[in-house]
Amino acid sequence: xxxxxxxxxxxxxxxxxxxxxxxxxxxxxxxxxxxxxxxxxxxxxxxxxxxxxxxxxxxxxxxxxxxxxxxxxxxxxxxxxxxxxxxxxxxxxxxxxxxxxxxxxxxxxxxxxxxxxxxxxxxxxxxxxxxxxxxxxxxxxxxxxxxxxxxxxxxxxxxxxxxxxxxxxxxxxxxxxxxxxxxxxxxxxxxxxxxxxxxxxxxxxxxxxxxxxxxxxxxxxxxxxxxxxxxxxxxxxxxxxxxxxxxxx
Length: 249
Fold this sequence. Notes:
Blueprint: H1 3-8, H2 10-13, H3 19-27, E1 30-34, H4 40-50, E2 54-58, H5 83-94, E3 99-103, H6 109-118, E4 121-124, H7 129-142, E5 146-152, E6 155-161, H8 171-174, H9 185-188, H10 192-211, E7 220-225, E8 230-235
Parallel strand pairs: 1-2, 1-4, 2-3, 4-5
Antiparallel strand pairs: 5-6, 6-7, 7-8
Helix pairs in contact: 4-5, 4-10, 6-7
């Protein structure tokens, strides 16, 4: 690191859990963020600010006026612009030393597999459960750590799949099907700070995994109820019959 980087990340380097060695791990990391909406915006901004060296942004949507209530990387003057381009512009203003790759397209299975295999970690910030299960399946197949977040109404949750943790359950272990999962913010609403809270926790879990400190949420589901300001950390077990990860050692 040069003098400018040492100063930029000084408050983080001061932490005994990170120090220079951990910061160098962050700077060397390549992270894939799928979805640059309410969750992906704080994720991308915090990871950029923290010095994650290469962010790959994947989203085929454009900025809409209704997004601005919660998707904080986008601005009014960028309505109609691609979300990855808008997020990249925000990241560049925040930390111009970060490399950003924009994927402004709907990735097919092969393209998504290629990006996941190249990543050190993946953050699922989507609100589409078909894509969510596909990301999970490819992360398990490639043994790539995955941080998944979800937020709707006044509720949110985060879970982590960590192939480096013995018997880490995957997203499919938690949800076997999609029948009860077809919820969207456009139909059910969401409070803006809820996605901020969940996205920020996703970013923190990613930093912990990349820098190699602390205990991740692997094996647990963290549930947030904003209405009562209640947090629950639920123990999850790997499903021995899981269609995705049962055969993974």
